User: Which sequence fits this backbone?
């Protein structure tokens, strides 16, 4: 579709063609399960007996990124797993969407620790966030329906509306995540010294880094 | 060896057969979570197998050092997320042992803990059954297993409010009493489960394809099993009769009448039959326990660990102060260390707590059965075909939340 | 203390004498603290001696006391399947200690995890490399001087 994409203004023909294309996309979304933790169990429950969301929505769980449209990131993404998630996201072909299911994928949840990525939207752009720990299957279904509504209002042939919200873009370089780049590990004496530190006299981490956050044009 | 980042690498060895390094990567349908297995293959034979866990390491142990004892209970839910109440129970029992309040737990709480723990064992084995048989190729079994699991999840949702991460156990008892309708629901489940179980056995047990793929696959002898630190169904499948519920009884298992199945050959088929039988025995335990379930309070009468009743906390100043203090500051513990363990669905789940007297642990170590069991994957698969790797992972019954913590 | 454990403690004290630094009992659990030089011989003895017969190694882990001289406390839990009794052994060390992998193969991954998270080097371990953290991670997370939230990409805590 390359030459025709996002070229035309809004008129009767383009909106009709767009709604036809969007109808096709939304009623046959094939999810790729990036299932890491507990939320993956709820996603298995949502797809099979009792809730049976898969067949009714035209979805079919695929495990290969080349064959899927939607990536369901369910569960905690750790710093060791982050490059894998990014690679698999890159391997998916356009058009692709991401649903972040569960608190861990949205923002790291209770695991604010050295090894957990605080939200998968730091490395890939997310379309729908489904909160919960784990979200009940009805909530995941609502999230899928919300994505269907987003797809419905999408613009394929028509020109896109420019995006102005910078903070919604992914902002962490996945290659830097695994390499903290720390020079000189503290010793036990440093640990003892911290016990007397005056918290207010040293500037906070963010004050020190002000001005050095990566700009939007950086990769 | 020429290696690409995620791809296969080949090398000719002396006999002319090509050795290939295959990465069964973290994102894979059959690895039951994010587990990476690096396989060196010669044709179809696995020459070297190297499991790489750690893709779900969330730092639970370090987080626990900064939380109060009662705040760690939700962290434990997410370890073995297929049977979260068992994890809560093991942790809470370890803390109660440390505090020395084991005999203050009321009877109703003890019996309810036992009933819910056995229901979780059935739920965990159902998922094992569904995913193991689905990996081998029979997808129908998964649909059947999820159907029964939903009934158990309904029971938990009714008691605690959550299907999966229940956090129902508290230090000194349970979160609260069970709502009306609990007993009928459990007895209904116990009544229908044996016939459903018979359906599963009929579907799978004598199936020639299933038997071909599991008989004599993943054989672990008894000496190897003990040396590799197996506990739980994997150990019993190899012929060693050790079940913590019988040998070192906790809760009220010594007052109940149940059998512990033990395998003979130590292959995947033995472990399959063993876990199926364990489900029936758990059903039997729940049936007996429901008859003996007494009425009464579900929280210990210890002012240090139990929050006061809501009516008192809202009307009396001392109770409100106590509630406030316990939630904001936690409660002090004796200096010492303690190891609390239960027979979880996967093996021996243990919590080792070192306390320095303050209201949070100095060190919390989670002894996860799946972590120790996964070590034996090279032993089971080296020299065998690559399709047996999937069977062996399934028969070990691993869950990554526990392995990586 | 269980009778069988009393016998075990007696035999250990007879055999190792000076190297046993203390035996404590808390909530029916026995802990034997030894010097790190006899770490492997002690466990070989505990496994093979017929009175002790600790054939299953349950857990090998460590605890960090950074303000102490020998900052790590290596802890090993073991179980005897025949006699159903358990024991805990501890040794203080600063960075290195003998590996228990030749005694029980269970200790292989447990020691890899302890190395990964604490930085304790186990001498004689067949394959000591990181297991939980990525291979090129710097630092040992579970030490007390490593911040909970780790270091960010600028190298600062948080």
Assistant:
């Amino acid at each position: 579709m390359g030459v025709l994409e996002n070229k035309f203004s809004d008129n009767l023909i383009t909106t009709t063609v767009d709604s036809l294309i969007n109808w096709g996309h939304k009623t046959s979304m094939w999810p790729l399960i990036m299932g890491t933790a507990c939320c993956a169990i709820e996603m298995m429950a949502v797809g099979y007996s009792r809730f049976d969301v898969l067949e009714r929505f035209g979805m079919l769980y695929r495990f290969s990124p080349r064959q899927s449209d939607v990536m369901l990131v369910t569960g905690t993404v750790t710093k060791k797993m982050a490059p894998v998630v990014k690679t698999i996201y890159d391997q998916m072909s356009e058009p692709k969407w991401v649903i972040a299911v569960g608190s861990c994928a949205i923002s790291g949840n209770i695991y604010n620790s050295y090894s957990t990525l605080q939200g998968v939207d730091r490395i890939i752009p997310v379309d729908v966030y489904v909160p919960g720990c784990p979200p009940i299957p009805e909530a995941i279904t609502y999230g899928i329906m919300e994505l269907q509504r987003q797809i419905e209002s999408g613009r394929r042939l028509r020109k896109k509306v420019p995006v102005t919200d910078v903070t919604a873009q992914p902002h962490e370089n996945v290659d830097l995540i695994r390499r903290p780049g720390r020079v000189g590990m503290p010793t036990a004496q440093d640990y003892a010294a911290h016990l007397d530190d005056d918290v207010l006299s040293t500037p906070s981490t963010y004050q020190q880094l002000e001005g050095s956050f990566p700009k939007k044009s950086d990769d | 060896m020429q290696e690409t980042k995620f791809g296969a690498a080949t090398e000719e060895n002396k006999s002319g057969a090509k050795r290939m390094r295959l990465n069964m990567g973290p994102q894979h349908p059959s690895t039951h979570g994010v587990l990476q297995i690096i396989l060196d293959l010669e044709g179809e034979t696995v020459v070297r197998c190297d499991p790489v866990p750690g893709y779900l390491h969330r730092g639970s142990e370090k987080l626990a050092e900064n939380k109060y004892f009662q705040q760690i209970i939700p962290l434990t839910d997410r370890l073995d997320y297929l049977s979260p109440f068992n994890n809560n129970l093991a942790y809470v029992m370890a803390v109660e042992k440390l505090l020395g309040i084991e005999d203050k737990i009321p009877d109703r709480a003890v019996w309810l803990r036992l009933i819910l723990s056995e229901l979780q064992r059935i739920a965990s084995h159902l998922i094992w059954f569904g995913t193991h048989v689905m990996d081998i190729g029979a997808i129908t079994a998964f649909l059947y297993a999820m159907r029964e699991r939903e009934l158990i999840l309904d029971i938990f949702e009714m008691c605690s409010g959550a299907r999966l991460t229940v956090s129902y156990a508290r230090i000194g008892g349970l979160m609260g009493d069970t709502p009306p309708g609990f007993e009928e629901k459990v007895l209904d489940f116990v009544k229908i489960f044996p016939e459903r179980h018979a359906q599963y056995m009929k579907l799978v047990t004598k199936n020639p394809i299933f038997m071909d793929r599991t008989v004599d696959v993943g054989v672990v002898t008894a000496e190897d099993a003990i040396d590799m630190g197996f506990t739980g169904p994997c150990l019993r499948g190899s012929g060693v009769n050790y079940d913590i519920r019988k040998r070192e009884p906790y809760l009220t298992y010594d007052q109940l009448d149940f059998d512990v199945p033990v395998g003979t050959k130590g292959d995947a088929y033995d472990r399959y039959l063993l876990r199926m039988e364990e489900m029936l025995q758990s059903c039997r335990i729940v049936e007996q326990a429901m008859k003996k379930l007494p009425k009464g309070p579900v929280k210990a009468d210890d002012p240090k660990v139990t929050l006061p009743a809501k009516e008192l906390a809202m009307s009396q100043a001392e109770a409100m102060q106590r509630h406030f203090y316990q939630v904001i500051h936690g409660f002090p513990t004796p200096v010492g260390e303690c190891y609390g363990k239960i027979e979880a669905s996967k093996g021996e789940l243990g919590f080792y707590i070192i306390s320095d007297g303050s209201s949070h642990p100095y060190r919390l170590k989670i002894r996860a059965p799946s972590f120790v069991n996964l070590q034996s994957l090279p032993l089971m698969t080296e020299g065998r075909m690559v399709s047996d790797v999937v069977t062996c992972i399934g028969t070990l019954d691993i869950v990554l939340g526990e392995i990586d913590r | 203390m269980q009778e069988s454990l009393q016998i075990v403690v007696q035999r250990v004290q007879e055999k190792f004498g000076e190297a046993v630094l203390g035996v404590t009992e808390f909530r029916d659990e026995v802990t034997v603290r030894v010097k790190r030089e006899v770490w492997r011989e002690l466990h070989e003895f505990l496994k093979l001696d017929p009175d002790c017969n600790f054939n299953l190694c349950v857990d090998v882990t460590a605890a960090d006391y950074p303000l102490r001289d020998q900052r790590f406390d290596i802890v090993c839990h073991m179980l005897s399947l025949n006699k159903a009794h358990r024991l805990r052994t501890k040794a203080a060390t600063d960075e290195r200690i003998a590996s228990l992998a030749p005694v029980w193969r269970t200790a292989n991954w447990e020691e890899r995890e302890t190395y990964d998270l604490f930085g304790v080097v186990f001498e004689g371990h067949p394959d000591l490399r990181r297991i939980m953290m990525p291979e090129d991670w710097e630092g040992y997370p579970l030490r007390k001087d490593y911040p909970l939230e780790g270091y960010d990409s600028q190298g600062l805590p948080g």
